[in-house]
Each structure stands twice: as structure tokens, then as C-alpha cells.
Amino acid sequence: MNQIMQCLWAIVMAMCATQMAHAAPSINVAVAANFAAPLQKLLPEFEAASGINVRVSVGSSGALFAQIQHGAPYDLFLSADSKRPQALVASGRIAASAVQTYAVGHLALLGNIDGLSDPRLTAAGTRVAIAEPDIAPYGRAAKQLLEQAGLWEKLAPGLIRGTNIQQTLQFWQTGNVDVAFIAASQCVTYQLTCQTLPDNYAPIIQQLAVTGKGESSIAAKKLAAFLRSPKIQSQLAEAGYAPLASGPAEGRH
């Protein structure tokens, strides 16, 4: 009987080992707030096709970059700019080949005003929100745009600043501001009526960085290739991003 039990136990252990060997790989992805909703919409297709499970953490590009620099176990970083991925290269954290552009973003204006020339934008009592320029790329772009329009010095003292572009939108959704400078992709995601803005700011070139090692790196590269594929780029164009072909695909700024 003992021999039979030992054989059965050996069989069970072998089956468990086989299942573990074929368990679906998983990766941790850090994504900038502007791309969180589009990514979540795309992931079911990727996971079904690849068998890779994706765990997502959302935040500002600056905050996620700091976490990676301090050893956070992310396998793929989807930044809202090129600055942070390139900084990872400069610091020796990753190789230059681990960085690629996956999207080019646009700013949009949300609120009951008629563009930057509308006097209501600078009127007393008008509450305006942008993402914090020091940590959020879309906030930096909004600052550049307002500087070009000669409005920054007047608006800056009273601006309500979100830690990321998602919080900036939430300020408007909750009625805490009258006007918000947000990502054009958010207008599509949340079906909002937004106004287009002139591109008087440095291109919002969104780059990814493969930060994982070993098998995690391989899985992360598959997701990176998926996001850059013509099919997905076509979908991202409909989601408020410029197709890679229309912008500097591997540019830096």
C-alpha cells in the first residue's frame, strides 16, 4: 500500500510540476495615467493571444519613474513622455534598445469656453486645472502652450494642479474647476465634448521602456510589439493619439 501511495504522490507532484511549468507568464506594467484606459481596453486581446497575464499600476510618469529608480518590480514602463525612459538609459538602468515610442499625444481643452482667446479663461473666478508640469508631461505641454499664448503668468498663481492627467480630468468631472487641459485621448475614452488646441508645445512623444529581466523581459517585449503593431496603432489613432508614422517615432525631447 505504501508503494502505491508513493507512486500516486509522485504522479501528483509530476502533474503539479508540469502545470507550473506551463503556467501563464505574468508581467507588471507601470502606465502613465493618460494611457491607462486605452491600455485596459487593449489588454484582453493581447492576453488572449499571448497567454500572458498583465498587472497594471497607474500613476504620473514622474512618480512611476521614481519607483523604478528605487527598484519597483515593473517589467514594462509606459511613460507619457520620452524624458523618463531616456533617463533610465542615461542612468544605466536599461539599454537604449529597450526604449521605443508607442504613441504621440495631443492636448485638448475641456470646459464652456471658446478656446484660449476667450476672455472667460482669464476672468476672475474661473477655475482652471492642468496636470503638474514638473511631473506630468501633459501638464508640461499645457504650460508651454499657455506660455506661447502669453497667458501663463496671469493664470499660474490660481491654477489647480493634478498629480497626473487623470486627476486633472477628475477635477472637472467633480465640478471643482470650470476648465481643464487634458489629453485628447480622455475626450474619446469618456465621450467628452472637447476643443482641439494648437500644437504650440513640444511633441508629447510617449515612449515605453522594457525594465524586466529574463522571461519577464521577453513577455514585456511582446506587449511592446503588440502596442506598436499597425493594427493597434490604427486603434490608437481613433483613441486620440497621432499615428507613429506622423510623428518622430523615436524622437527625444
TrEMBL record:
<dbReference type="GO" id="GO:0046872">
    <property type="term" value="F:metal ion binding"/>
</dbReference>
<dbReference type="Pfam" id="PF13531">
    <property type="entry name" value="SBP_bac_11"/>
</dbReference>
<comment type="similarity">
    <text>Belongs to the bacterial solute-binding protein ModA family.</text>
</comment>
<feature type="signal peptide">
    <location>
        <begin position="1"/>
        <end position="23"/>
    </location>
</feature>
<keyword id="KW-0732">Signal</keyword>
<keyword id="KW-0500">Molybdenum</keyword>
<keyword id="KW-0479">Metal-binding</keyword>
<protein>
    <submittedName>
        <fullName>Molybdate ABC transporter substrate-binding protein</fullName>
    </submittedName>
</protein>
<feature type="binding site">
    <location>
        <position position="165"/>
    </location>
    <ligand>
        <name>molybdate</name>
    </ligand>
</feature>
<feature type="binding site">
    <location>
        <position position="61"/>
    </location>
    <ligand>
        <name>molybdate</name>
    </ligand>
</feature>
<dbReference type="GO" id="GO:0015689">
    <property type="term" value="P:molybdate ion transport"/>
</dbReference>
<dbReference type="InterPro" id="IPR050682">
    <property type="entry name" value="ModA/WtpA"/>
</dbReference>
<dbReference type="GO" id="GO:0030973">
    <property type="term" value="F:molybdate ion binding"/>
</dbReference>
<dbReference type="InterPro" id="IPR005950">
    <property type="entry name" value="ModA"/>
</dbReference>
